[in-house]
Amino acid sequence: CRESTPVRYDPQRECWDIFGYEDVYNVLKDHxxxxxxxxxxxxxxxxxxxxxxxPKHMQMRGxxxxxxxxxxxxxxxxxxxxxxxxxxxxxxxxxxxDLVHDLAVPLPVIVxxxxxxxxxxxxRLFKEWSDSIVxxxxxxxxxxxxxxxxEREKTRRELDEYFLNVIAERRNxxxxxxxxxxxxxxxxxxxxxxxxxxxxxxxxxxAGNETTTNLITNAVRRMAEAPALQTRLQxxxxxxxxxxxxxxxxxxxxxxxxRYATKDVRIGxxxxxxxxxxxxxxxxxxxxxxxxDQPDQFIEDRTPNPHMSFGFGNHFCLGxxxxxxxxxxxxxxxxxxxxxIRFADHFEFKPIRSxxxxxxxxxxxx
Length: 366
Ligand code: HEM
Description:
CATH 1.10.630.10, binds protoporphyrin IX containing FE, 49% helix, two-stranded antiparallel ribbon
């Protein structure tokens, strides 16, 4: 399909699908032609930087970007390791665990909650909200879509109320956390208003949790499928980094993005009109044979590996260093504890039903 139809119009979803690596790259690179600003703002996310264009995008992104540099993130390593150890210590000692629920879901939620400065007793709520804002519809039919929209609106109201309280507290009593940094930050000499801060907090929740969960899960799934790979990783710990990059390429946690054409534009043979919705498919670009040798083979030491799983251009994932570090630490700890990771008996894959994220619902391992 990618070779014969690299760009196609989908009349049902009323959008242009972009499949080839080069085209996806060019769309993501050119924010003046392919905008991230949505014509209608949804209840979640789209008032945040992910739905902005320059120059506002860069000013706002600059406020949090310091907290996410590889150096700042590296400092979180010991804390991430102790959270992962604690989570694994809490698993029942009957020989099996569900990697998704026992580790891959709670680890990123706790890390983001701590970064923001959310108290431990509120983490449960946090997790429910985080699930609700990224959950896809049960099906594509109108009732399901509408139900999901209402559910998200309710979650959004709860999140607003919760974060507005936290923001008010930090204005009175600053702490060493991200919410305080947001409260104190200035853009062009002006402080952010409360709703701008809320948008940032919700974005971090939505963008950082399920994605990282799926990266960790997809990596362990691959290990369980390939015992020889596990031995190779045990014997050669430095391989873990290129292994994680290949997991990202081969099983991208985010499959597709969206952009809007700001003017009439031609991609390949397709004439796209101003205002039309464009879907660059990361999942397809990552398997493009014109960019990757043997794209359908999983090659754990593939170098270079210019996958686009963290996007590209001005919206390149802010949390990429954090996601990579969480995955590296989680995998090392699992490998130290379980020498031969296997699927539990009678396990059947239940892929998450979504055209947007890629992962499995549960992963019972021995
Ligand atoms: C943006 C993927 C983890 C925060 C993005 C984008 C992708 C992505 C593809 C680009 C969106 C676009 O161009 O429209 C992933 C994947 C992750 C991950 C695959 C895990 C494996 C995280 C984490 C955080 C995070 C852990 C933070 C805690 C963000 C933010 C943006 C973003 C704030 C918006 C950046 C901007 O608009 O400038 N992510 N992400 N992500 N991600 Fe991630």
